[in-house]
Amino acid sequence: MKPSLTMVLSGLFLSYMAYSMYTIALIFFPTHCTEKGKQQKCIQPYIAKHKDLQMSVYTSLKTSEISSNDLTLVWNYNNFTIHETVEKEFNITIPAKTRRNGTLHLHVFVYPRRQDPFTSQYSSHDQSAITTYMVPQSNVFNLLSDNGIEEKKTKPASGQPVTHWRSKVTVNVMEDEIAFDRQGVPGEIMRHLRVSPKGDYLPIVYIDQLGFRTKDLVEVNKSVDALPLTITYSPISVGKLRMWSNMLQSIKMLHNLGFTEKDTDEIKGIFSDTNFVFLMLTFAVAAFHLLFDFLAFKNDISYWKNRDTMVGLSTRAVVWRCVSQAVIFFYLMDEDTSLLVLIPAGISTIIEMWKVKKAFKVALSWKGIIPSLSLGSSSDKELETAEFDSQVDLQVDSQLILRYVHSVGFHAGVYAFGFLFMLPQLFVNYKLKSVAHLPWRAFMYKAFNTFIDDIFAFIITMPTAHRLACFRDDLVFVVYLYQRWLYPVDKARVNEYGQSFDDAVTEKPKKE
Fold first, then answer.
1. Which run of H or E residues covers position 105?
2. CA separation (Å) from 181 to 31, 357, 506?
3. DSSP letter assigned to residue 412
4. Cα 303 to Cα 367: distance, rounded to the nearest angstrom
5. SS3 state at 121
6. Phi/psi of residue 218, each to 5°?
7. Distance (Å, rounded) from C-alpha 15 to C-alpha 9?
8. pLDDT given for residue 499 in this prediction
9. What string of DSSP letters covers 442-483?
10. Rounded (10°) CA dihedral 417, 421, 422, 427
């Protein structure tokens, strides 16, 4: 028996995922250089024998070729200890050039105590901009908040990007005293490596770029002379340093592909302050979510492509699902939601629109250059299903719905009534005492994804209404599963392709 395309693709995907997780494990746990008698092939860490260090933090308008005259001291950490986490708050003077839409940089030096960081041959250095350019945010008000109180939010305003202040910065020094092979230093480490006159490598200083979040940005006002800055020092493992460096390069590539700062900010939120176990779990969950998304879309399209009848399916549910999905997509777009949520929602909207076309048997014909749409006819079985569908009474007055939605917020109403619009199909199943007409393969993949969405609802930033909708779907799926158990399988029942076992038996002699 030949394996199906789905099985082959799933196997390839899982193999790739396993290989990727193995690669991540190698990043977090690199091989130590331990060749005895050949120590010249290993480059040893300076901090293994020298613990007496201090750290100094400066601000400057320059990025390179700096001197003591170009720097403004912010923090002189004399009792510096690599393994101790410290957080300090400072009030930083903003130069006039920075206030006039300029930039400002942070410089960090780690060096032996009582030495000059600018002249010492044992001084490590890293720098990063603590300003960035973004379109100013305008204030809007959301009347629907969790506590019922008017909530102020921000939306991008039209105009040119201006200087924004990064109010939080994290500084790291690699704490692992690991020896590297001189001929095989990892590329992520090599770009930060600096060798001392004695041949060992100096402390690796790293300013955490993934820690820069858009929620911490403050617009630089020309009239403000100083702004607060929180500097956190914490040690970093060799695995995290390598992973963070790789992620930073990937984010730069995403920016080149057109992803915005907000889109990549969601990715930063997943990876920053994450231990190895949670990172691997997040990677595995995301991979399975992508796989189930693909299989659900594939089977859903395959089911509707081969289906020419609406027997057993609620047309009303198909239409309202399309409408609610479209409105949800535009709401997510208006909320500047992460592309991780927006793209699947957009694909779902296109599929739902295509389902409506199939449900009403819409055909496009041309009379010269004039297009014409026509609807197909319905069979007796389809009319019976439509009659059951019409018996579903939500007992909700349309004017009352409009008033309620207007009072509590349009998007929340769409999510809430999206749940009600899924009920007609449950009623049709009940009247027919059958669920054979449902696309169960696509249904089960969507069910698995729903449980994964419950996990991601607490990881990825998304509107509260969308987060609640993930848990809403759990209840509907449980009811569908109960109906599948309640109505036993019989061979006369119509399958997912609009056929039954009895039909196949009766048609076989005709084909012979």
1. strand 105-112
2. 9, 63, 74
3. H
4. 31
5. coil
6. -130, 130
7. 10
8. 53
9. HHHHHHHHHHHHHHHTTTS---HHHHHHHHHHHHHHHHHHHH
10. 130
Q: CA 233 → CA 165, 171, 212, 326, distances in Å?
A: 19, 5, 14, 46
User: What number of residues does the chain have?
Assistant: 512
Sign of CA pseudo-dihedral 164, 168, 171, 175: negative
Phi, psi of 39 (to 5 degrees): -65, -20
DSSP 238: H
Compute the distance between CA of residue 171 and CA of residue 84 in angstroms, rounded to an integer. 12
Chain center to CA of 158: 26
For the chain, give the longest Cα–Cα distance: 98
3-state DSSP call for residue 89? strand
Structure token digits, residue 164? 């924004």
Nearest to 240 by CA among 210, 261, 219: 210
Q: What is the CA radius of gyration of the chain?
A: 30
Average pLDDT for runs of 10 along the chain of length 512: 75 81 81 67 89 93 83 92 93 92 93 91 93 71 45 54 90 92 86 90 91 84 90 91 84 76 70 64 74 77 77 76 82 73 82 84 75 73 71 47 44 50 71 74 70 65 62 73 74 51 44 42
d(CA 44, CA 291): 43
Enumerate residues 6+ apart whose C-beta is below 8 A from 389: 314, 315, 316, 317, 424, 427, 428
Residue spans of alpha helices (H) in 148-237: 187-190
351 residue type, one letter = I
Tokens found for residue 62: 């320059």
Dihedral (CA of 33, 39, 44, 47) sign? positive
The CA-atom distances, in angstroms, between 41 and each of 44, 68, 242 are 10, 37, 22
